[in-house]
């Protein structure tokens, strides 16, 4: 009896495995048509400044409206898009879409200073054509370079430090801003941070979340803020969900926030300027 149960369980396991593999294969195949079928959409999440009490820009965050699986968040398909190389084309679409939408908002709402932050993937960042693609998105949309923020992560930079610096400088020489995303989760050291041509760092939400919690570790939040300040960098806190997050961050000298407290990411038509 025991043996038969074991065998059954194995059979069920095998069935589930193959189901999961089938889904993955299906996802991978449908990725090839997703761009042509216009299944991607950008959501926008406001970035707020406590100095002016105003939204100074939006981070664009991709979603995939999958015909069978529904709305998929980037964690479900970005790595797949990287594996298949599709990320290069998807990334170009994101740049174009985010720049065009933001220019439209600037004109419609008479807010010429509105900014947009665009996330890059590791593969895009090492693409030697990247700066040209970014410049083209600006030219095509009419968005000024000062309105565009490129978000990259520490791990991306560490893959090829010298080349990364070169790419960042090409972007910044045009007036584009570069922000270091998810800061604190990599192995950040002061000496390398000092050499990076960046405008701001974003404190990862895993640290912000701990503010006001019982077993909190605010030492890291404090260290990041003072480190950024001493290097003359702007600091943006992500994952701000509570009033007490804001009061704490403000007390420590961090005045720029992004998180559910203000708004979840929403599609463009739901953004109120
Ligand atoms: P990220 O760049 O660090 O973006 C912030 C993530 O935190 C977003 O998740 C956002 O929805 C979420 N978030 C913001 N505020 C809060 C909050 O208060 N609480 C909680 N729990 N979460 C919050 P999302 O949209 O699922 O994106 C995940 C990641 O996918 C992004 O992390 C980014 O690394 C990547 N990603 C998003 N869009 C793109 C894209 O267009 N291209 C590439 N290459 N990567 C993208
Ligand atoms: Mg980001
Ligand atoms: Mg982030
Ligand atoms: Mg993050």
Automatic annotation (TrEMBL):
<feature type="domain" description="EAL">
    <location>
        <begin position="24"/>
        <end position="273"/>
    </location>
</feature>
<protein>
    <submittedName>
        <fullName>Diguanylate cyclase (GGDEF) domain-containing protein</fullName>
    </submittedName>
</protein>
